Amino acid sequence: MDLGLKNKVALVAAASRGLGRSVAEELAAEGAQLVICSRSEGKINQAAKEIAKTHGAKVLAAVADVSNPADVKRLTEFATERCGRIDILVTNSGGPPAGPFESFTLDQWEAATKLLLHSSVELARQVLPGMKERKWGRILNITSIAVKQPVDNLILSNSLRAAVTGFARTLANEVAAFGVTVNNIMPGYTRTERVEQLAQMMAEKQGITPADFIERWEKEIPMRRIGEPREFAALAAFLVSERASYITGTSIPVDGGWIKALM
């Protein structure tokens, strides 16, 4: 299937590793030009070199903290100056700390809000004028299965990723007539450093090994395994493609059947 991504310009946030990196790899394989960012100059430059070498794609690296509006503005200006436009935006960031409600201060709530909600809002704010002018654009937010079925001990993520979903669903209606789609993709337990870190933390609290804790997760998943980043990236590439032009305002899980809800 030709996804119609050849020579499209995609900005993928937090793409030095994990799900962001896997999405960047998939888009490069489909012929897109990439601008990728992370907070680590060394890691993002290395990722750009590896993706370009593997896929023969044009890949530009930028250092940016997406929780900082000034960095977001500088990032999008860099992408526009170097590539002429931004056709596709994939919002993404690291996750906030795990823990129960009473363990977090107001400052920690504000930091998590900037990381998850404000970053998505500001990235969209910067790219939308150009997308609307060209009558074509794709915005895809990487959220979490926690949006539909909250995960224990992740109150910051559960709360704020749900806020991103409300923002995106409303924005989708506002920009649909301009040929711009806005969707969310909800990763389940996927083999990333973030999931491994959560497993390590939870295992230590319960006095078991991380492997034992991951096995507990796998027993909750109908497929009896955690996902691989490439499986997540395949859907992401479709949702930002030409072929997905009539899909907007959706939140789609990639979770092996973990979510129990009907819809």
Structure characterization notes:
This protein has helices at 18-29, 41-55, 69-83, 106-134, 155-175, 193-206, 210-220, 229-239, and strands spanning 9-12, 33-38, 59-63, 88-91, 137-142, 180-187, 251-254. With 263 residues, it is an alpha/beta fold. The chain has a seven-stranded parallel sheet with strand order 3-2-1-4-5-6-7, with helices on both faces. Strand 5 (137-142), helix 5 (155-175) and strand 6 (180-187) form a beta-alpha-beta unit. 45% of the residues are buried.
Name its key features.
263 residues, alpha/beta, 7 strands, globular
Number of H/I helices? 8
Calculate the terminal CA-CA distance, rounded to whole Å.
27 Å
Q: Proportion of β residues?
A: 5-15%
Strand line-up in the sheet with most strands: 3-2-1-4-5-6-7
Report the count of strand segments.
7
Main sheet: strands, sense, barrel:
7 strands, parallel
Structural class: alpha/beta
Arithmetic mean of pLDDT: 95
Using the alpha-carbon principal axes, give the shape. Answer: globular
Low-confidence spans: none
Order of helices and strands: EHEHEHEHEHEHHHE
Helix content: 40-55%
Radius of gyration, CA atoms, in whole angstroms: 18 Å
